Amino acid sequence: MSGGELIAKVASGVSALPADEWDALTDGTNPFVSHAFLSALEDSRSVGGRSGWSASPIVIEDAQGRIAGALPAYLKDHSQGEYVFDHAWADAWHRAGGHYYPKLQIAAPFTPATGPRILTRDPQLSLPLVRAAEALCVQSGLSSAHATFITPDQVSLFEQAGWLLREDTQFHWENRGYSTFDDFLEALSSRKRKDLRKERAKAQEGVTIRALTGVDLKEEHWDAFWQFYQDTGQRKWGSPYLTRKAFSLLGERMADQILLVLAYDEDQPIAGALNFIGGDALYGRYWGALVDKPFLHFELCYYQAIDAAIALGLSRVEAGAQGGHKLARGYEPVATVSAHYIVHEGFREAVSDFLQREREGAAQERMWLGERTPFKREG
After folding, report:
1. Number of H helices, E strands in the chain
2. Looking at residue 300, what DSSP letter applies?
3. Helical H runs in 110-241?
4. How far is Cα 304 from Cα 310, in angstroms, rounded to an integer?
5. Per DSSP, what are the bridge partners of residue 340?
6. 277 forms bridges with which residues in the sheet?
7. Helix (H/G/I), strand (E/B), else coil: 270
8. What is the pLDDT of residue 279?
9. What local confidence, expressed as pLDDT, does residue 235 receive?
């Protein structure tokens, strides 16, 4: 690949690309950049059509015509489903007479989980891929490009390219070598330990909890979870991002990387939480319930996730965006990072000034939150 001119192309979607070539760009540990996940979103029409997400992966091929590097990228005409909120930027740019949309989003759609955003078999292609995203913005008249929830090892690649960095806070659970849930509880203060035990007991009272993965996942389970997902989606953001077909396709294509936790009242499923299993992390994604049962949300989304992570030997649980209530359940504040390329120089400078102040505030907030975890204090 050295010495010659590199040509980056925009493909019509991940589904149009060979699965083996796409997956060879990653180490296979992050489910959300896999061909199976991204193509399922496309094939189910969760992205594309009227969703506002137009799959536009940027790829570089080697001399044999095989994919050597790629960015999971989308043209967007809104800012929904990203979990890194730039609505204020869009409003400011529109009030100044500009057009913020369309923009380029480098991400796993609807997924606020850290993951690689530069996918390549050759590290020397990392910067050319980033430059290709910039060129696409300039040539196509896009206002900006945004790479969200970047893994820590890739942050410097975007920073070296001159992209603006933005920080936010999530709550992750860290496995400090626990063998059981009780081992984890022993690390908490006495009062918090008692609180969590009471919550679990209350949540489990009168229900049966089943954790399903692999061949145990059936269409009847997706039918039930679809009801839960719709209820949560309609209450939180108006309409669900994923179609019903998406869950069936995810179950078909990556069942071994899915952990679906369902709560039953006798034979009737009443609530559920959907997780994805990575190489070193469990990722909590969606939850919903048809009943209002105290602490059931905490049990299915947080405590069952901890149980699963310990059993699978995973190092952490990423429980999704926001949610300060996770702090009391042993989930600790961590920084998440996004990178932003703004075409207009003046607007870029204004955003840069804003981000510097925002980063300082986010760091102070994490420090404050870190002092309020439920863990025992040393000394």
Report:
1. 12, 15
2. I
3. 126-140, 152-160, 181-186, 190-204, 219-236
4. 10
5. 146, 164
6. 282
7. strand
8. 97
9. 66
